[in-house]
Amino acid sequence: MKLSARIKPWLLLTPALLFLLLPLYGLWSAFRLSVYPDGKLTGQVYVRLFSHSDFLLSFFYSLWIAAASTFLSLLIGWFFTRAFVPMLERTGGRLTVWLPMVFPHFVWAYLVLLLFQEGGLVSGLLPGNRAYANDPEGVGIILTYMGKEIPFVILMLLPVYLTRNRLYDDLTETLGGCWISKIRDAELPFVTPVLIETGIIIFAFTFSAYEVPALVGATFPEMLSILTFDWFYSGDWSERPLAFAAMVFLTTVIGLISLLLFHFINKMRRNITEGL
Amino acid sequence: MKKILFWVIAMLFIISPVGILVLQSFTSPGSWTEFSLYGWRGLFETTRLLEATGTSLTIGFFVTVINIAVGMSAGKALALYTFHGKTAVDTLFVMPLLVPILAITFGVHIAMIRIGLADTGLGVILIHLVPTVPYSIRIFRNGYVSLGRRMQEQAETLGASAGRTFFDIELPLLKPSVQSVIFLTFVISLSQYVITSIIGGGTVVTLAMVYFPFLDSADTTLIAAFSIWFAVLPLLFYITAGAVFRLLPYRRKSGRRELF
């Protein structure tokens, strides 16, 4: 009995652990191909990568777009959720807000193209006829991501606001706290872990996704995913190792950032359950 | 007041953009008022579209079934059992969402060529699991957490077999989780362009593979209809799955009455 109780969770986990082999193998294989480009261990590919001016430009450009998309989605999604909890409690309001999630990212990108490209439906109304799709600043990409990710942020945050203990609000009020301390002491401790986790998922995705920049991105500068995709399919395969190396590096950066933030969340969760 | 503000925002940023697509798909090109089925007729006359819809539905179906099986068992383990290394396992299951999918796909591609999975539907199904399974595990985990152990213990005490407990208690009570997983998984699978193109190699033509080159054509009416089609399919899939689901777990209802 004791033994089977110990084995049972692992039996249940087996299919999921087998599934994990796929992404783990993929990542490992990409790493291997970046350090053994010709069957010999070498760091040459990474030296080539970091001296590539296109790569560095693309990397920081992608970093900026991912950070901006993530920050704006989290901020707006959070304010929207806390402001409109009563409307979001109703099925109609909730489904309306989640509607963009039904469409693939590339359909939303097309919509941004339709509205904001040169001669688009909205850009004609803007002062100076400015186009915000395929623009070098990446506004079109950020707009697309916001349209798709804000509903996702609301999806993740809403349960927190629906199940949160509202007595903490009264508590801060009774103790003479203003609205700032109400947010800081009664909401943030519960909201921050979810916000950070959602933020990591959005950041990792927007940093490396291909579809949206392929449609609403500018020809220059390019996002990293576009650049690496071109390297991967370059005619003579000489640039393929660069594609692997770029993706391994991107994974490392995202990994380090998430590790740091997850550590922060865990500390915070412990503070909620044990401290306070 | 707040209610009005809510609907104004929803109108501006969600309803009107989607509304524009719907309107465009039902009017003749260049006009906003003249009703026409030009876009939809054109869409369904594209044979590639119908074939691609079939391919996307088939791939989406298998991806969803695998997601339910894998997600349900892992979610159950994580929700109802304590064991060594649980935190590590938990973190590992989020990982596929954080690693760039291109990194994984680039790495897997050569192995898939070697074992003959590249350019096949099975290869595409496998790669579609990467961005979907982590979400399914999470949804089922939450489902099992709110379900708790009590109900199952009761069934066990009454002498029900594991299968009986699953079909009579877990499955019906987990229905909301199953529905969320079906919907989310199918939508995500339908949205994959770049990984389908790499692993499918142009041989496995899903809807996304048809949509991308379509955007170069200037026919906005047709593109609008095509865009709406992407939202219609998950709904159809969801409704069909719901109908099938209704048939499943209550088969035993009559059997249960015999006990009394």
Automatic annotation (TrEMBL), chain A:
CDD domains: TM_PBP2. PROSITE patterns: ABC_TM1. It is a multi-pass membrane protein. Coiled coil: none annotated. The chain crosses the membrane at residues 59-85, 97-116, 139-162, 190-210, 242-262. The keyword Membrane applies. Keywords: Cell inner membrane, Cell membrane, Membrane, Transmembrane, Transmembrane helix, Transport. SUPFAM superfamilies: MetI-like. InterPro entries: MetI-like (IPR000515), MetI-like_sf (IPR035906). It is found in: Cell inner membrane. Residues 59-261 form the ABC transmembrane type-1 domain. PANTHER family: INNER MEMBRANE ABC TRANSPORTER PERMEASE PROTEIN YDCV (PTHR43357). This is Spermidine/putrescine transport system permease protein. It comes from Salimicrobium album. The lineage of its organism: Bacteria, Bacillati, Bacillota, Bacilli, Bacillales.
From TrEMBL, chain B:
The chain crosses the membrane at residues 57-81, 93-115, 121-140, 181-214, 226-248. Keywords: Cell inner membrane, Cell membrane, Membrane, Transmembrane, Transmembrane helix, Transport. Residues 53-241 form the ABC transmembrane type-1 domain. Its main location: membrane. Pfam families: BPD_transp_1. It is found in: Cell inner membrane; Cell membrane. SUPFAM superfamilies: MetI-like. It is a multi-pass membrane protein. Coiled coil: none annotated. PANTHER family: INNER MEMBRANE ABC TRANSPORTER PERMEASE PROTEIN YDCV. Belongs to the binding-protein-dependent transport system permease family. This is Spermidine/putrescine transport system permease protein. It comes from Salimicrobium album.
